[in-house]
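Amino acid chain:
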Amino acid sequence: MSRPTITVLYFASASTATGLTTETVPIPESGQTLSELATILTARHPNASNLKEILDSSQWSVDCEMIDEPEKLVLKGGEEVAVICPVSGG
């Protein structure tokens, strides 16, 4: 049996840093909290410039729903997680 996976969508500076717009990421059978995902993504992309800082300042969306408390949301597999980077505009 294969491990559960999630789909991560990258936008703006997160996409630039990783060179990706999407990737499939395996997660533990027991699940993992959304707040732990930044550490996993940073480890998967050790050469991505400033990725940790980008993820730390970003918000998260799971299955098109903004998440206010990522430490309370447990990913089980099958979710689509978007990294929503801060934007500046004028």
